[in-house]
Amino acid sequence: MTLSVALTHRTTYRYDRAVTLGPQTIRLRPAPHARTPVLSYALRIEPKPHFINWQQDPQGNHLARVVFPERVTHFDVTVDLVADMATINPFDFFLEPEAETWPFSYDPLLEQELAPFRRLAPMGSLLRGLYDQVPRDEERTVDMLVALNRMVQDRVAYIVRLEPGVWTPEETLAAGKGSCRDSAWLLVQLLRHLGFAARFVSGYLIQLVADVKPVDGPAGPTADFTDLHAWAEVYLPGAGWVGLDATSGLLTGEGHIPLAATPEPQSAAPITGVVEKCETEFGFEMHLTRVRETPRVTKPYSEAQWQDILAMGAAVDRALVAGDMRLTMGGEPTFVAAGDFDAPEWTTDALGPTKQVFATRLIRRLQPLWAPGAAFQSVYGKHYPGEQLPRWALFAHWRKDGEPQGPGATCRCWRTPTPPARPAPMMRHGSVPRWPSGCRSIRRWRNRRTRTSITISGASTGCRRTS
């Protein structure tokens, strides 16, 4: 499935007079560790003239530092990006053996590097109460983190809070509600007190309408949606930074595009800077548009697309008929022994004690059903890379009209074929073939209207019927 979306994010500041703007720091570019593929990105700043310099903070986040040499009456920031919404499995990682169960300890060298992400805020009584509710029994680390994320999601109801800043964990727990950034910071501090390295993340959240409504659980958004969002990330040895969204109680996926990940929330603010004292009118808008959407199981072709496909197929059929081109189809089912199907000869080895015996029995049982009057042939089969010799194959060749292939009712030649003294003549159409002195010459017979064959090979003891 390919589904690409275009996101537009516009922030505007209107001043009541011309003012002096100090340097502005903009953190609205997808972070280097973003897992969602970003196909294109553009940042537009108004008014002009201005100077923009890209840099990275100590955590590696992309920052745009903008300087205005003249006084301005407005300040506009517009982000345009296109993202590929390919499904991301949030559990697609492995942990180091020592970190597979919790509690665990970080490597001493890693502890020094993660020190800023383990800095603890004072623990109030409410945070202490939540901390004491966490079971201390040894548990799989991933299961423990999933349960912890759900615990915070159950304790804090989500609200839209327009006031600036982030509440402390005590304020969030006392209110029993909070914005996404409040829940994220609460989860970060809870993780740190439990011994984890954790950081605060600001980014875009993209939510798309589901193709099919779920049988149970929340139905999800009724329209495609995007907004600025916040969540937490925890560092796990072997996996790196893993995102936890306390607002939804889920791990982060393709809809989470991180913009800034920092030890403290203040360092992840989308836009920071100073401005001369004045009256300011703030504006904010975000748009999401599907720009490319290919058919998929849950949203297949439209009726018009199906009609176009059928019309193209009919045109191809007419062209094939006009050119007298005839197509055949073959398949290679795999047969294994029912009694010992895990033996090497049925998995990796070319030969074994029973493979060729069973293959011979199979082709002889198929012969009266599919290949009356067939001639059998044992030849070289496929030659796989890394193997010194080709594998073997058993062929059965017969005519569709049932005419026996050789002297007598059926000819069975299991010995290694030897070339004839002279090439066998080509068959005339409608003639009855004669069995040549060497079995290999049977492959020169090209009576296309009557010849057909079964092949059983030593590679996987497959049976292939071609006609």
What structural class is derived from the secondary structure elements? alpha+beta
Oligomer, anyone? Answer: single chain
Return the string of H and E elements.
EEEEEEEHHEHEHEHEEEEEEEHHEEEEE
Which bin fits the share of residues in helices? 10-25%
Key descriptive features of the protein:
467 residues; alpha+beta; 5-stranded antiparallel beta sheet; 5-stranded mixed beta sheet; 32% strand; disordered C terminus
How would you describe what is shown here?
- By secondary structure, the chain is an alpha+beta fold.
- Helices cover 18% and strands 32% of the residues.
- It has helices spanning 108-113, 125-132, 141-155, 169-175, 180-193, 303-322, 355-370, and strands at residues 3-19, 21-26, 38-46, 51-56, 62-67, 72-84, 101-102, 139-140, 157-158, 177-178, 198-207, 225-236, 240-245, 250-251, 256-262, 271-275, 280-293, 375-380, 392-399, 411-413, 451-457, 463-466.
- The strands form 6 sheets. The protein has a 5-stranded antiparallel beta sheet with strand order 14-13-12-11-15, covered by helices on one side. Strands 20-18-19-21-22 form a 5-stranded mixed beta sheet, covered by helices on one side. Strands 3-6-1-17 form a 4-stranded antiparallel beta sheet, with no helix packed on it.
- A hairpin with a 3-residue loop joins β12 and β13 (240-245).
- The radius of gyration is 35 Å and the shape is elongated.
- Mean pLDDT is 85; it is low at 408-452 and 459-467.
